[in-house]
Design a protein that fits this description.
Blueprint lengths: L4 H14 L12 H12 L14 E3 L6 E12 L5 E11 L5 E3 L1 H12 L2 E2 L1 H16 L3 E10 H4 L10 E8 H4 L1 H12 L3
Parallel strand pairs: 2-5
Antiparallel strand pairs: 1-4, 2-3, 3-6, 6-7
The structure holds guanosine-5'-triphosphate and zinc ion.
EC number: 3.5.4.16
GO molecular function, one term: GTP cyclohydrolase I activity
Subunit structure: Homopolymer.
Length: 190
């Protein structure tokens, strides 16, 4: 595991003391271990190769867009170590071999890249890059919408703002009609 649980536990005990707390008081005794396990969970994506999810593919001779929309995710902002939470929309147009991957695998990809210290732009790009590299599709479109708690609960304090990022490749980039159709899918029934 990339996260050193014992070390994080010790440091959280230290952090609590630096925050003016008594780490030995009743309510805080188990907190360092709990926080360490939480980071283990939130950063579990570091321990896996996201591409492995895409090794499952089926011959479908489907040559039109496939989109899984509204994939919920939460990630950790690498600037403040607080969450950003939102939804990802992932679409691809199968390659000339007509092979498709499992729908859940697109959500697993989002999960794998969000369970790391991230910025939203990199998360978006990494999902698109992995799909492009492993599936070799004719097009990839990834849209990510998220609220950053570092903008909601502190600093500029603007809850409810949504940051939208996209990564657009292949046919979705070169053919405006294909891109428009995909974006229409993203916004349908909302
Ligand atoms: N581009 C990008 N910026 C992010 C993301 N998450 C947080 N940030 C920004 O990172 C910036 C860090 O700016 P700094 O000025 O170093 O930090 P800060 O003083 O805490 O900034 P404020 O949030 O404006 O108070 C802020 O503008 C955040 O809004 C992200 O996913 N992508
Ligand atoms: Zn932040």
């Amino acid at each position: 595991m990339a996260v050193d649980l014992a070390r994080v536990e010790g440091l959280v005990r230290e952090l609590l003391a630096a925050l003016g707390e008594d780490p030995e008081r009743d309510g805080l005794q188990d907190t360092p271990g709990r926080v360490a396990r939480m980071y283990g969970e939130l950063l579990a994506g570091l321990d896996e190769d996201p591409a492995r999810h895409l090794t499952v593919s089926f011959a479908a001779e489907h040559d039109e867009m496939v989109m899984v929309r509204d994939i919920p995710f939460s990630s950790l902002c690498e600037h403040h170590l607080v969450p950003f939470v939102g939804r990802a929309h992932v679409a691809y147009i199968p390659g000339t071999d007509g092979r498709i991957t499992g729908l859940s695998k697109l959500a697993r990809l989002v999960e794998a890249y969000s369970r790391r210290l991230q910025v939203q732009e990199r998360l978006t790009t990494q999902i698109a890059d992995c799909l492009e590299r492993v599936l070799v599709p004719r097009g990839v479109l990834v849209v990510v919408e998220a609220e950053h708690l570092c903008m909601s609960i502190r600093g500029v304090k603007k809850p409810g703002t949504l940051t939208v990022t996209s990564a657009v490749r292949g046919l979705f980039r070169s053919d405006p009609r294909t891109r428009a159709e995909a974006l229409q899918f993203v916004h349908a029934h909302r």
